[in-house]
# Entry
Amino acid sequence: MTRKIILDTDPGVGIPGTDADDPIALLLALADPRLDLLAVTTTFGNCPPELGARGAAAVLAAAGRPDIPVGVGRGTPIARDLPGVLRDAYDGERGREGAIALPQIDAGAAPTAVELIIETVRRHPGEVTIVAVGPQTNLAEALAQAPDIADAIESIVFMGGALGREPVYGRGNITPVAECNIWFDPEAADQVFRAGVPLTMVSLDVTSPASGVVLAADTIRSWEPTSTATRLLAEICSTYLDRPMFEWADGCVLYDPLAVAVAADGALGRFEDLLVGVETNGDLTTGQTVELRDGDPNLRALVEVDGPRVVDHMVDTLFTHL
# Structure
């Protein structure tokens, strides 16, 4: 039985200085036979959502799935201005097409990301898992506009947050205590955490070189692509190796693909039920995800994973099914 998913993402496809993990996550969502990708929605992060939608369209076309709809989300957080670090990045290379040619899209002719989330969940009540691998702006807006969908979403699996359990990589990648997906829109994450939807957290604690969730550069260079999709995969990864966003490992850390893998296999690693809050008001700690001591759990967190085994399975899935 396949699991119906929506992928909410910020894919920078071939754009220097952006992570390769978002388009890899999209390709994995298309390749894994346990998943049925119903829609893609784009948010800000690696690049503006309109540019991310063009990247998503390129990936879907390469995989022979241009029928999957793409919805463009808003380009700013729900309660604050776009962070200066993103404004500056979007004024540069991360705001325009890079090394890989992207198709033009007519965003006005398609549902917005929020509309697409609401429509898809209502069409398949109780069946849709949303895999969110960017800021959670689209999810928060959809839940605010259509509160009824909270009971109709099967679950949300998100890549985001840092619990500090892993002492080197599990603290923060945008501030000393905050992970960027949460920090870019902490109010949105706070709303999603409080919505009552079943949540699974895939944090920096498990998406790191310490856990082995790394697609090694030597592996990427050894590939012999056999399809349009795997050729695009190799090109995306090679572009990333030329200009990595983070120099934490010799290769691509598979943050977002791990969330897709968890959506496909809920027993992928060891999980704990936790109560986690999002700091929205701290001068020094905005965006921090805090493990709270008192209260009922609001999410299930992946806390341990066999990274090398999972990465090998991802690569095998990509090259077998694309």
About this structure: The mean pLDDT is 96. The longest helix spans residues 228-242. The CA atoms of residues 14 and 101 lie 8 Å apart.
